[in-house]
Amino acid sequence: MEIDRRLFIAGLGGAAAVATMGPEAKADAIEDFMIEELAAEDTAKFPTVAEVEAQIETRSYRRGAGSLFIATRGNVKKLDPMPEKPTLIDFYNHRFGGVVRHCLQSANHAQKTGMPEEIIFACLLHDVVQSMMKSDHGWWGAQLFEPYVSEKVTFAIRYHAALRFYPDPSVGYEYPDLYKRIWGEDYKPPAYVETTYKMVRKHKWYMAPRMVTVNDLYAFDPNVQVTLDPFVDIIGRNFKQPKEGLGNDNSPVAHMWRTIINPDAPL
Description:
The protein is mainly alpha-helical. It has one domain (5-261). Helix content is 48%, strand content 0%. It has helices spanning 5-11, 15-19, 23-40, 49-54, 88-94, 99-112, 117-125, 137-145, 151-163, 177-183, 191-201, 207-214, 232-238, 254-261. The radius of gyration is 18 Å and the shape is globular. It starts with a helix and ends in a 6-residue tail after the last helix.
């Protein structure tokens, strides 16, 4: 698939922003860009669940693996070194990869549409765990951030993944065509997702994860250049940065941060 280089570079924030990205981050960004481009193409023909399953043995990787652990093309590259006491911003700059662009777009859209700060922050965080794990990423993401963010932000991150499969016309959320491509047009979410959706739908914080879905796929605009700069103060107000550095604070999830720091460690 050919890509529009100018559009791609502009979406990342321009040539200067691209120059600061490591090889892995660039590869992730290209993958995300291609997915978005495919989603915008003719959607008249979607695969069935059976056709999607038939593709499994045609790949040398698992689709649920985080982007840090697989190469979208060619071999993986050496990662940038991390500071001794890494902050959340260090992970955005050196580890979360191409998904950062998507999350920045999501947070930017939420900010422009007047969402509360906690929702903007949840949008900024909601998918970055996909650098480590894509399967059930809402639950993985909530676990990764839970010791450092508010209960409501955790709730929004954890349950946005389940809510993606269920339209809510009252807020303008429709089932995305992209999901028909990923899972098949006849896909039905598993029972635990259905049960989760029903629980969250009745919860007082339902609109928190729902607003993340609203500001998710629909937020992408290739003509908008977004950097982390406008969200640095929001991170400062809403993220409890451990003084020892993420991965060194002996929290229940420190091992997850260490895994992202060094995904080349075999043990």
